[in-house]
Amino acid sequence: MTKYNDIKYTMLDGFVIHDCCIAGNDYFCVSAEKLLSEEEYDYYSKRGTTRIGIHNLEAQKKGEPPIWAGRTWEGHSFFNTRLVNTEYKEYLMMDDAGQVFYGGLGDRKFIEDRIPPDQRCRQLTKVDDQIYGIGFGRKILKRIDHGQWEHLVPSEIRNAIPSGQAGFDDMHGFSETDLYAVGGKSDVWHYDGEQWRFVDICDDPILPKAVCCAEDGFVYIACAHGVLVRGRGEDWEVYRPKKQLTKFTEIVSYQGKIFLGSEQGVFVLEQNATSLVYQPYDFEGQIYPIKARRLDVGHGLLLAASEYSVALFDGQQWQYLYGGGPSPEEEAALLEQMVRDAEESVDALHDIADKLKSAKGQG
């Protein structure tokens, strides 16, 4: 009999997921940190155990719950981690303190030298085959080799920063010579392979959080308060929803659609649409919607992760890799069964009441 409390089924129980990564067509990673109580937790001295969770579809048996493997660092080794796919079925993990772990199949698993303070980043991205690190203070690092990074943004641009307005939070590109970096207060920059240029989006301030360069040739920028920006070069348009409740944390392009991730849910917009009005995404009605704070695209797949769930989409079918709830169809079937059971119970009570009345009349 399968023991569903084995660690391969409960690898992420009690952990909160920070990031997710598609490393291969059947190889997926998440970085997570163990939840601690307020009494135990301290940002500087005591944080929860960090864990890399690995799900390999080749090892998954049909009909069994998702199987996870992983690696664990106790105490304060890593925290607030980010992931990016490097080579096939290999990945890089970085945290806010500049600690880096390179992992994947085979023996290529090792902790790299800690990144110096002036090079520490809080986000990782990949354009073509090149890995970049992104950080506050208009900081972008280009990964040269294992343990080797170099600044991509010149010091005169990094140092010329108005207080409280500087990026960056994210970067993406159409190629290594056509990059867009965003963050801070309306701090959007373009790199053409030789120099960086500030992009003036609009007069009213925006708070860019994530960016993606889509197949339709447009740059999409997801901002705080549900603001969405689209454009390229000198032409930009801005959509500001009436209810500014959504704080976007992620934006990706997949199969002709733009997906926006947030703690409030996932939203979707058709590429090259005439309007930037996005809609809540229902996960094709196949699984119960999750609030995906992180999204990743690669190897023809889309991966979504909330704090406690991971789901995979192959373009046709969604499936949970961890957590989640019943699908809308399953919920409807369950509700229908509950209604039938309730109706049968009411009928049974009516029968009992009729019999009691009959017995009372005979007496």
Secondary structure topology:
Elements: H1 7-10, E1 15-24, E2 27-34, E3 50-56, E4 69-73, E5 82-85, E6 90-94, E7 100-104, E8 110-111, E9 123-127, E10 130-135, E11 139-145, E12 148-151, H2 155-159, E13 170-175, E14 178-183, E15 187-191, E16 196-198, E17 208-213, E18 219-223, E19 228-232, E20 235-239, E21 248-254, E22 257-262, E23 265-270, E24 279-280, E25 294-298, E26 301-305, E27 310-313, E28 318-322, H3 328-362
Antiparallel strand pairs: 1-2, 2-3, 3-4, 5-6, 6-7, 7-8, 9-10, 10-11, 11-12, 13-14, 14-15, 15-16, 17-18, 18-19, 19-20, 21-22, 22-23, 23-24, 25-26, 26-27, 27-28
Distance between the termini: 57 Å
Radius of gyration: 24 Å
The DSSP helix count reads: 3
What do the pLDDT scores average to? 87
The count of strands amounts to 28
Helix content: 10-25%
Low-confidence stretches: 327-335
Overall, the morphology is globular
Percent strand equals 35-45%
SS class: mainly beta
The description of the largest β-sheet is: 4 strands, antiparallel
What would your notes on this structure say?
37% of the residues are buried. With 363 residues, the protein is mostly beta strands. A four-stranded antiparallel beta sheet has the order 1-2-3-4, with no helix packed on it. Strands 5-6-7-8 form a four-stranded antiparallel beta sheet, with no helix packed on it. It has helices spanning 7-10, 155-159, 328-362, and strands at residues 15-24, 27-34, 50-56, 69-73, 82-85, 90-94, 100-104, 110-111, 123-127, 130-135, 139-145, 148-151, 170-175, 178-183, 187-191, 196-198, 208-213, 219-223, 228-232, 235-239, 248-254, 257-262, 265-270, 279-280, 294-298, 301-305, 310-313, 318-322. The chain starts with 6 loop residues before the first helix and ends with a helix. The protein contains three helices and 28 strands. 12% of the residues lie in helices and 41% in strands.
